[in-house]
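Checklist before submission:
- one chain only
- standard amino acids only
- sequence pasted in full

Submission:
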Amino acid sequence: MPFKKLNPEIKEKLEKFEIITPTPFQTKSIPVIKSGANVYCSAPKGSGKTTTLILTTLQKLKFEPLGDAPRAVVLVENKEKALEMFEAFEKYTQHKEIRVYVGYEELHIDIQKSEIFMGVDILISTPKTLNKLFLTNGVSSSQLKILSVDDAEFLAQKSNYTAIMAVTQTIKRCQYVLYTEKIHPMLKRFEAHFMEFAKKVEVS
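Returned file contents:
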């Protein structure tokens, strides 16, 4: 059972939320993501993709703060999705020391830079905003361990596609996990770039 092999603090949170049995998608995906491979995860809405993203991110960071630079990045389409993801993370990280920060295009880049400078473990952002942060030295990618993309279909849009390509060229080494309902042909192109040797977890 995937939940049994997670960090004790994560299991404690799952028990609190009465999440006992993993979904079929979680049973298949969590061990593959924990292995450290790049992964394309596709499953219908309601399969537990967002919870999987949160659990595997916290697992990768051992559910503890460390250093100042983000060790995990979660990319989403827009401000609304960013705030939703932040709230979803907050359920697990409330009253814990691990630091989650949310940024988006409507928030002035200088504000984001100064707040990130104070120290962040998990950064939730959009591809365009993250690219801007990298270009202006507003965030370091040196400690990055995992980059996940929620509902990754939006990366097929030209501006987001360009931004994610620029972002991944800035990152030297990192695990990438893309969550989607269906693997868009445009997303498959990433295999020639940052999604090298990617594994696929598909649940229909």
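Reviewer check: The longest helix spans residues 79-93.
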